[in-house]
Amino acid sequence: MTTTSSRPVGEVLGIPPASHRLRDRSFVLLLAVLTSVALIVLAVLLIDTGIDGIPQLSLSFLTSFPSAFPAKAGIESAITGTLWLMGVVTFVIVPLGVASALYLEEFADGTRWWNRIIEVNIQNLAAVPSIVYGILGLAYIVRGPLSLGRTVLAGGLTLALVVLPVVIITGREALRAVPPSIKEGALALGATRWQAIWRQILPASIPGIATGVILSISRAIGETAPLILVGAATFVAFNPTGLDSPFTALPLQIFSWISQPNDQFRMLAAAAIIVLLVILVILNAVAIRLRNRYQQRW
Amino acid sequence: MVAITQGDPTPGSNLRDVSDLDPASDPRNEPAAPAIPGQVPAVAAGQPHAAVPVVAHHDVIDDAIETPVFVTEKLSVSYGSSPAVLDVSLRVPEKQITAFIGPSGCGKSTIIRCFNRMNDLIPAARVDGMVRYHGVDLYGGDIDSVQVRKRIGMVFQKPNPFPKSIYDNIAFGPKVLGMKGSMDQIVEQALRRASLWDDVKDRLKDNAFGMSGGQQQRLCIARALATNPDVLLMDEPCSALDPISTGRIEDLMHELKETVSIVIVTHNMQQAARVSDRTAFFIVDMGSSEEARIGRLVEYGPTDRIFTNPHDIRTEEYVSGKFG
Predict the structure, then answer these.
(1) CATH of B59-319, one of 3.40.220.10, 1.10.490.10, 3.40.50.300, 3.30.1360.30
(2) Mind telling me how many Å the CA of B19 is from chain A's nearest CA?
C-alpha cells in the first residue's frame, strides 16, 4: 500500500509568475482577432453578394443568353465558354506540365547552367501578373505567328500559359514527394530508368499532380485580365461551336455587367459571381478530397 | 614488414595469408605499422595514415574460392574528389553468405553498391579498380547496368515496397524483365521462397503498406527473388526491424543460400557471426577532417576465424566490442 503525500502543487513545482499566463493569453487573443478580421471581410463580401445575387438565381438565368433586358439575360454562353476554355487549358497543361516536371526532376542535371536558368525562370513566371500573359497571348497567339484570332483556342492557350508554371512547380513537388527508395527499388530489380519512372514514380505521384492541375484550373477559371486582352467578347448570344468559335466566359460576363449603369445588371453580376464561386468551391473540394484520399504516407 | 603491398607484381596474387608469416611479426604486435610511402594514392597524400597498413590481411582460403561470384581488385570509390573507400580486394564465394562488417562510414555499403552498379545513380561517384562478376568486368565499357541488375538482386536498409498491392510488388520485376509463364505462379513461388506466402496468401490485393515492417522487408526479399537472381545483395536489411523479424530474415537467409549467393552488409556483429560463412571487416580511417574519412578493408576470411582468431588487432578490438 503506497501513500501519496498531498503537498501543495506550488511547493513541488514552484509558483509560476502571473505574467507568463497573461502573456500567453494575450498572444492567443491577438491571433484570434487577426484571423477574424480576414474572415469577417470575407463574410461581408459573401453576404453582400448573396443578398444581391441569390434572388436572381433561377434555371432560366443559367439557360439564357445575355440580353439587353435584365429580366431575360442569362449566363449560358458564359458557362459553356468557360467549360470550353477549361477543356483547352487541361488538354495543354497536363502533358506539358507533367513532361516539364519529369524532365526537371528526373533527368535535368541541376549543375548545368541552362537547367538552372529554366528552373529560376519557371519560379519567376509563376509570379508574373496574368495581364502580361494577356499581352503575350494577344501578340503571339491572337495575332502574330499563330494568328488564331479571338477564338476559344486562343483564349485557352493564353490561360494555359498563365497557369503552366504553377502546374510544373506542383508537379515537381509531387514527384519529389516519392522517396528515392522507390526508384532505387525499381532499378535494383532490373527496370530501366523509363520503366521505373513510368510504372512506379509517376503513378505514385498522380494524386499530387492531379491536385496541382485542378487548383491551376480553378485559378484559370477566375482569370479575367488575359481574356479581356485577347479580346474575348462580352456579349455572345450563342454557345461556342468549336475551338475556332468566338466566346465569352463567366468572369468576363461579370465584368461586363458590373460596368453597366443599370442596377439590375449588377444584381445579375452578383448572381454570376455566386455561380462562379460554387464552381470554384466544387473544384477545390475535389482537389482536397483527392489529396486526402490518395496521399501516400511514406 | 607484415603488410603485403598492393604493388605486388604478380597479378591476382594479392590475396595472401598472414598466418604463413613469422608469428613474431604478427600485426597485433605492431598495430601502428606505418604506411608505405608512395603506396597511398595521390588523393590521400599529405594525410596521416600511419595507423592503417596499406593492405588488408587476407586468409589463404581466399585463393581456394574456385568459383567466386565476385572478385574485386583494388576497388576504390570516390565521391567527387574525396575517396570514400580505397583498394578493396576480395573474393565472394558462390552459394554462401558473405558479411561486410565495420563501423559507420567504413564504405561497406558503398562496396556492395558496386556489385549491382547502384553507385551509378550518384552522379559524383567514381569507381576505380575492378569488379568481376563470374569473370566479367562489371564496369567494362560494354556492360549495361540494367542487365547487371537483372541478375543481381538487392534488398535495402529500409523496407521500400512500392505503394501498390502485395501481388503487384512481386510482379513488377518479372514484368519489366518480360518473364514468361503464369504470373500467379511466379508470385506464389517468390512469396513461398521468402516464407511469406502463408502470411499474405489471402490478401494479395491489399496494399503492401499495410504490412508490418518485418513483412515489408520479406516482401522486398520476395520481390527480389521473383526475378530468379543469381546473387542477393542485402544492405543492412534488419537495421530497421525488431529482433523477432530479424530472426525470421536470418532464418530465411540460411534457406536461401542453397540457391543464391548472398552478400550482406551489417553493423551488427552478432548477426554477421550468426548468418555468414565469410566475413570482411572494414574500418574507417579518420583523416584530418570529416571529409577525409576513408574506408578500408582490414581483414577478410571465414567467419569463425574472424571472430575467434582475428589476425589484425583492429578486427579483434572490433569483434570483442572495444570500439565501434
Answers:
(1) 3.40.50.300
(2) 39
